[in-house]
């Protein structure tokens, strides 16, 4: 863990250096850290506050306001399932229940094998392809339970 | 060399467009067929995506919906010559769904390579800017005012009046901010423009900068749109390289700089003052108004905040004139509105049309009814803060004032269709739940009212003191409507009350008709 902390600190320092002179730099900084590390570690908060001349409470307030930012490491893959009206009209709730059952997780949780984190999302703009979800950077539309199983099986197969 | 068009639009990708491209490329190489695949925007007919269009001597020939497994059969049948096949659609522009649209803002989407500067210029791009550079700021603003363009984000405020306020606000530094936080369920027109014709947005923002004297612009883009992010960044870099962004726009000596900033999954940041807070690196808390952002906006400076479609409609107004645009539409709703058909609908897609078409025409003649063949029971127009309309209201023309007249909103033009299995009490409960999730928390009616709203609806559905709780719900909605700081808390009652009024039986309440 010590080694990991050190590497994280290095990565955060680099991102701060690249962004801190931008006007309104906090969101770009937080995105940079989450893109690089997968989450925003607790230890990074003090470094961000220091670099931007803000209080730790202010930084924490911003991180906790936005649904997208997370403060714990995600699973290997992050699944974002749309909960909004268009997807509901196309069996989105059934897909949600199915996904939770298959992965044995609730929203904001990571499966026991560390493979999948499940997050709710309110609209992916894929309403003409409802129900929709993303896995990492890939988007999927008209997702049936069978299609969901295929996608999960492919990722599990690739991991073995 | 045959040119083939396969979309890079996120919905096309979600349905397998990337696999189609890869398979076609591999098979064409194996068969020694010379082929160039252009990744265009989407035509917006999503039941046909992934759509493959082939350029032939007699025009483009379309096939769809194509899966990777169809490619062998298509090539065998003579795909590159535009030959017959069960997936053959012919000329896509001849299909009624496309032919009967009036594509002004979406003129190039699905036709050009979205990130090709040359393609953009060849298809009438930057003509609006060229005209704008010959006009004074006041004359540009007058063109936009005279066109009748109103904010397409949902509030429908006249764009020219907003610009005029910023023009007349004295300041060293002003900003153009594009609201690309398209969070309403059932809407994707902003995304389609940004992925399918990003230069038109860049041009619109540049013209806005010239009009009000702003030299810097930001596109506040939701993080859920990574494909739009990529397309915008490519197009912005290309505009800089070609001298259409930077310190000397097209040799005019005028400056305009543009960058994309990402949101982080907060619906409330689509509210303009919350968006500005977020751009400044803060929690997205709604600001008190006044002062208006036009006077005190981003970093305290005069700022134009406009939706993507509003800004993307500016180039054609400056190109063809205010009259040309204003001649479309009805009443005080001028020009065209890109409508988006979503949810349980057979033909989901983008439908740009002049204001005035009825909802019924759109839902049945073009939408084709529910995807599963069941009857349409309710449609929600204008996103999660829009009203649920029963069949009796389907003859309402798509016009801002006509919708206001039935206590509904046209909003950003999103239409979500529900079949007869929908539980409208559950949809009302969800509307309140969504407000709980997404309220910024600054004002009490929204922050607390939404939590109480979920509880009261649950009690009504359970049958606990139903009459008293129904009165309580209406009273609560009244407080939220008139007491909230912004549209989040102020409009959440719209879907709730419309569900209660038109679908009381779903709440376990006898309708007025039954009682009479």
What would you say this structure looks like, in words?
In chain A, helix 1 packs antiparallel against helix 2 (26-37), helix 1 runs parallel beside helix 3 and helix 3 (42-52) crosses helix 4. Chain A is elongated and about 50 Å long. In chain A, a hairpin with a 5-residue loop joins strand 2 and strand 3 (116-121). Chain A is of the alpha+beta class. The model of chain A has no long low-confidence stretch (mean pLDDT 96). The longest helix of chain A is centred in the first third of the chain and has 18 residues, at 2-19. Chain A has a five-stranded mixed sheet, with helices on one face. Helix content of chain A is 51%, strand content 12%. Chain A has two domains: 2-65; 77-159, Glutaredoxin, CATH 3.40.30. The model of chain B has no long low-confidence stretch (mean pLDDT 97). In chain B, strands 2-1-3-4-5 form a five-stranded mixed sheet, covered by helices on one side. In chain B, strands 13-12-16-14-15 form a five-stranded mixed sheet. A four-stranded parallel sheet of chain B has the order 8-7-6-9, with helices on both faces. In chain B, helix 7 (137-147) packs across helix 10 (198-212) and helix 9 (189-196) crosses helix 11. In chain B, strand 10 and strand 11 (333-334) form a beta hairpin. Chain B contains 22 helices and 16 strands. The relative contact order of chain B is 0.10. Chain B is of the alpha/beta class and 516 residues long. Chain B has four domains: 2-96, Glutaredoxin, CATH 3.40.30.10; 117-326, NADH-ubiquinone oxidoreductase 51kDa subunit (Rossmann fold, 3-Layer(aba) Sandwich); 329-419, Ubiquitin-like (UB roll) (Roll), CATH 3.10.20.600; 424-515, de novo design (two linked rop proteins). At the A-B interface, helix 2, helix 4, helix 5 and strand 5 of A face helix 1, strand 12, strand 16 and helix 17 of B.
